[in-house]
Amino acid sequence: MSRQELPVLDAACCAPLTGEALSDESAAELAKGFKALGDPVRLRLLSLIASRKGGEVCVCELTDAFTLTGPTISHHLRVLREAGLIDCQRRGTWVYYWILPAKLAALSQLLDVSGAAAPASV
Amino acid sequence: MSRQELPVLDAACCAPLTGEALSDESAAELAKGFKALGDPVRLRLLSLIASRKGGEVCVCELTDAFTLTGPTISHHLRVLREAGLIDCQRRGTWVYYWILPAKLAALSQLLDVSGAAAPASV
DNA sequence: TCCTTGTTTAGACATCTGTCTAGGCAGAGA
DNA sequence: TCTCTGCCTAGACAGATGTCTAAACAAGGA
After folding, report:
1. Closest-CA distance of chain B to residue A93, Å
2. Checking CA distances to A101, which of A11, B3, B10, B107 falls within 20 to 30 Å?
3. Residue A14: its pLDDT value, please?
4. Chain B residues with beta carbon closer than 8 angstroms to that of A108
5. Is residue A43 assigned to a domain?
6. Where does this protein have coiled-coil stretches (chains A, B) (predicted)?
C-alpha cells in the first residue's frame, strides 16, 4: 500500500516562482500537487491529518468529519496519495494515513515570494 | 480592470496545516487558490509573471510563450485574477499583468510544515 | 466457516474545465 | 472617421472530476 515510487522531487520544485521561469515538465509535475490541493474536501482531509498530534489518523475518523460517503472520502484520499502528499498503511482492520512533508515543503517553497520585488503599480 | 474587492485574506490563511484543523469556509477559500494553481499552463503563466524583473508582463509576451490561442491564455489569466493571485491594467493598447504576493504568501505558509512532527512510520 | 465491520474498487451520471472559433471592444495611427 | 492591432467575451464541445450506489476485499470474532 505504501508507494515507494516517489523518490524524485523534481529539481525545479525547490526554487521559488520569482526565480527562473518554470519548464513545461516542472510545471506539469507541480500542477499535479496543487490540483490535488484544489478541492475543499481534500484540503480539510489534509488538514485533519497534518494537525493530528500523533501524525496519523484512521480513515474512520476522517469519514466521520464529513457528510460524504465512505467511497467519496476514499477517492479523495487516493488523489492525495497519488499526488505524493500522504501515505497510508493498514493495521489490522483499520487504515492509517499520514502526511509526507517533503512534497508539501516543495510546493510551499515554490510559492514563497517573500523578498521578491514589489510591483510598482500596486 | 483592477479588482479592489479582495482586501480580505481569511484569518486562517496564515496558519500552517499542522496547526488547528481548517474550517469548512477556510478550506473552501484556500482551495480556490490551489485550484487556480493546479493547471500547468496557469503555473507557467504565474511563473513567467513572477520571474519577470520589472514585475510586469504584457499579455502579448505571455501568449507568445505558448502554442495555445489568445482566448485560452486570456481564460487562464482570468482564473488567476479571480483567485487573487495576479492583477492587471491596460496601458494604451497593451495589458500588463503582475503578481499579488499576499495571496501567494498565504498559500505558501499554509503548506509550510517545516518543524512539524515527523510521522513514526515512514 | 460464516458473519460483521472497515475500507476500497467499479461503474454511472451530472457538473465542471480547458480548449477552440467567431465576434466584439478599446486604443493608436492614417 | 476608418482601419489595424491587441485583448477579451460568448458559446460550443470533448474530456475530466466529484459524487453516489452496489459490490468486492480484508481482518477479526463467534
Report:
1. 17
2. B10
3. 67
4. 108-113
5. yes
6. none
B117 falls within a domain: no
C1’ C20 / CA A77, Å: 34
- Tell how far CA A92 is from the center of its chain: 26
Whole-model pTM above 0.90? no
* Number of domains within chain A: 1
HEC string of B6-33 equals CCCCCHHHHCCCCCCCCCHHHHHHHHHH
Is A63 inside a domain boundary? Answer: yes
Do B47 and A36 make contact, defined as CB atoms within 8 angstroms? no
Residue numbers of the domain that contains A42: 11-110
Check CB contact of A67 with chain B, cutoff 8 Å: no
Residue A18 pLDDT grade (very low, low, confident, very high; cuts 50, 70, 90):
confident
Question: Residue B121: inside a domain, yes or no?
Answer: no
Would you write out chain B's pLDDT as a tens digit for each of its 122 residues?
444 333 344 444 567 888 888 888 899 999 999 999 999 999 999 999 999 988 899 999 999 999 999 999 999 999 999 999 999 999 999 999 999 999 999 999 999 887 654 444 43
- Please answer yes or no on whether B17 and A89 come within 8 Å at the CB atom: no
Q: Is B89 on the interface with A (CB under 8 A)?
A: yes
| Distance from the A24 Cα atom to the nearest Cα atom in chain B, whole angstroms | 7
